[in-house]
Specification:
This protein is an all-beta fold. The protein is built from no helices and five strands.
Length: 68
Amino acid sequence: MIELRCPGRMAARLVDFQGRKALEVKCNSRICRAGPGVVVLHRFDPDTGDLLDTRRYREPSPDAIVQK
């Protein structure tokens, strides 16, 4: 996995997806149903720019994170 970063944050990363490379980007758009507590990740073909996959995950609440 290769991460694409600026000094402030990770912008995207290159991941393996179904036997090929894909550019994975975090989306903040409400159209894609991102919002408080929900993370949306899009995976794009780096050669064509085609959208390959979209995943939605629940962000863990601060109360659910256990510190050791």
